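Structure first, sequence second, as always.
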């Protein structure tokens, strides 16, 4: 943290860096929560047999709904964190960010509810 903040301090004041870091840590917390929510939904999907996972001796990543879950943490959570770190609020919401994370949670929930 100190090493990363020292890069920010090359151009920004300590107050700016402290506030930025607070927002960034909130982004990490939020994306972790959204990833956990989607993972819990995916576990229920596997348990109900809507998709086949490791318990059925199958890959966790080969079905469409599993790829939606994988996108959640592999692409969208990481893109949101990067955007937050680089002060890219619009990118963090819309371009591979929170909007897509929320959409994926809804898709996982809908798949579970409709089976």
């Amino acid at each position: 943290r100190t090493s990363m903040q020292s890069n920010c301090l090359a151009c920004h004041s300590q107050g700016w860096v402290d506030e930025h870091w607070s927002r960034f840590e909130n982004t990490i917390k939020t994306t972790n929560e959204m990833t956990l929510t989607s993972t819990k939904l995916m576990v229920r999907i596997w348990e109900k047999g809507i998709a086949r996972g490791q318990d059925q001796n199958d890959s966790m990543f080969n079905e469409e709904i599993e790829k939606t879950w994988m996108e959640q943490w592999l692409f969208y959570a990481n893109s949101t964190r990067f955007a937050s770190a680089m002060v890219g609020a619009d990118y963090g919401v819309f371009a591979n960010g929170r909007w897509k994370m929320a959409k994926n949670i809804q898709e996982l929930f809908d798949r579970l509810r409709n089976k």
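Margin note: The helical segments are 2-9, 14-47, 64-85, 89-93, 98-113.
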